[in-house]
Design a protein that fits this description.
Elements: H1 2-17, E1 23-30, E2 35-37, E3 42-48, E4 55-64, E5 71-79, E6 85-93, E7 104-106, E8 109-120, E9 126-134, E10 140-142, E11 144-153
Antiparallel strand pairs: 1-11, 2-10, 3-9, 4-8, 4-11, 5-6, 5-9, 7-8
Length: 157
Amino acid sequence: MKFLTYCLLLFLFFLQSCKEEGVVYNDFVKIEESSWKYKDNLSFNFNILDTINAYDVYLQLRNTKAYNWSNIYIFSDINYPNAKTRRDTFEFYLTDKKGHWLGKKSGNIIENEFLLFKATKFPITGAYNISVQQAMRDTSLEECINVGVKIKQRKRP
């Protein structure tokens, strides 16, 4: 019995050590039929309780190697608890100049993590929403599997 308890504790320790430090929010939305349409507004809801510390906000994208473009344009809206909204437009590169995929590769899937906002402070406590839309000329981006948002608290110097 002690051996099983020891093994369980060891497993839980290793599981905890795999968790990325400082992440306060991390969620993905599955793209239906791997086809991200320009009208698809992907929504991520989270709560902020700490207005003192700064956060890095990342966009995460999983696509296959059959994705047709070397980049992606994104519209991003942050909806604040006081009903104000901030809209930004981003361009992210998925390949280098020679056409080699950037990001983490696993078989046919490429996973990229792009910094949306560096060292940003959320000024109000409460419920926030980040919505993301693709802003490419194609009305449907084929071979996009998942889109995610990760929020990570920055370490104090």
